[in-house]
Specification:
Largest sheet: none
Radius of gyration: 29 Å
Helix content: over 70%
Distance between the termini: 71 Å
Number of helices: 2
Shape: rod-shaped
Length: 82
């Protein structure tokens, strides 16, 4: 995942167990899980907001293109009689 091998992972686990009381470990892991879940939720909200913004920009661009096309058509057909 981060370029960690089995040796680095085992070393990290041992260091964490030495620094943190094993009784407190479940509480800390739960808090880290909650923080991770909130971060993922916010990322998904940002992705959806960006997608909605992108769709709105596309809609506005199409509307402007349609208006520009109408103006050009009116200019070109102004002198034409049917």
């Amino acid at each position: 995942m981060f370029g960690f091998g089995i040796t680095e992972t085992i070393t990290l686990v041992i260091v964490i167990l030495v620094l943190i009381n094993p009784k407190d470990l479940p509480v800390i892991v739960r808090k880290l899980g909650n923080i991770y879940a909130r971060i993922v939720k916010q990322i998904n909200i940002l992705k959806k907001s960006y997608s909605d913004f992108e769709q709105e920009v596309d809609t506005v661009a199409k509307d402007l293109e349609i208006k520009d096309t109408r103006k050009r058509t009116v200019k070109r057909t102004k002198g034409v009689k049917l």
